[in-house]
Write a structure and sequence with these properties.
Elements: E1 54-56, E2 59-61, E3 72-73, E4 84-85
Antiparallel strand pairs: 1-2, 3-4
Length: about 100
């Protein structure tokens, strides 16, 4: 795990955002997993990564199969490392990046 943060002041609906306490350095051409834990539900789009990945600025969400499954998850009563995959789904966890030189 590179970093962890706890959501606070969440609303009943809409996009939720959390910021890490300090910046996290990442390396180019490296696959990372951004995960969250919830007991109240999630958004999912099945088959989202079957035939394509998604590029946004310097980040690339890979098509499933390029480097393992895309959008992994793990159900449980406490946070766990996500290792399961289901129908190349998108679980709608986004990462915001600030690029420094």
């Amino acid at each position: 795990m590179l970093a962890q943060a706890t959501f606070t002041n969440e609303s009943a609906s809409g996009w939720q955002t959390v910021t890490f306490p300090s910046p996290v350095a990442i390396a180019p051409n490296t696959t990372y997993i951004a995960a969250y834990f919830t007991t109240s539900g999630y958004g999912v789009s099945r088959y989202y990564f079957v035939s394509q990945g998604v590029n946004s600025g310097p980040l690339h969400a890979l098509q499933s199969g390029v480097d393992g499954s895309n959008m992994v998850y793990k159900y449980g009563s406490a946070p766990q490392y996500p290792t399961d995959a289901w129908q190349d789904s998108n679980y709608w966890v986004d990462v915001l990046v600030t690029v420094s030189q």
